[in-house]
Amino acid sequence: MRNVLVTCLSVGSRMNSLEECISKVKSLEVNNFTFELLILENSITASTEIQNLIGKYRSNDFIINHCLESRLGIPFARNAALKYAVDNNFSFLAFIDDDAYPEKFWLNHLMSTQKSYNANAVTGPQIPIFPQTANNSFKFASIFSERKFAHNKTISWAATNNVLMDVKFFNNNNLFFNEQLTEGGEDKNLFLRATKQGATLYWDANALVYENVVDSRMTVTWVMDRSFRHGATGYAIESSTKSKIYTFLTCLFKGNAYILKSFIWLPVNIINPKKSFLDSICDFFHGLGFFYGLWSKGRFKKYI
Whole-prediction pTM value? Predict the structure, then answer.
């Protein structure tokens, strides 16, 4: 029977949302496969709070594993999860964030699509859940929105907030997360390299996870910083599948295009009640980030 390792990364700073995630994973309804949960702790030392939380939910019917990765950085932790899946003979590895939780048929949908198309990876949307008091400028901002594709469409990359991976394919092709990308973009980088090596990646529109948007992210400063990082990591991401000159030209074009777009769409984003002025701010700083990435060759140390 096929077995899945569902992995949630944690640094121990979001205990309430981590508990919600564990609780929802425990309640998943699955057919014709088994799964276990791995809490991958990315910290110097193990957290007593996380250990207590695991003890609270672990049972004979719900296996929760724990792994400590003391090298700080998301790609180190994700590679530790991939290695754990390989070493323990799991067929598939699924990732979900510790500030998110799955719909009860989430894993069923991912596995069904994988089986139907013999996919090497399957991904789906992450739906933002805003506080009732959230301003519409944030609710309508594209930075909080998920990409949208037709159901079962093949795509070129996935984010690790909601993805299922064929462990054998990634291991056999020596495909691991780039540990130099501690600043972000390691997931897009990996899946772009995977599709270049022939991986098939499908979008399942029904495989839903939900993310609680916290107040600290609903600020203009956070939006600017996040957008800048997306652009700044662009060089490292583009260079994973392109030559140096093509990477330079692509980043140069995208930097100019995002900045130009920010000014062209600004009146619409201000006037249209279903749009957000934050989109123009995002585009402007996204474009600036691409130019910074060209200058720094993708080196960007602040993860937001």
Answer: 0.93
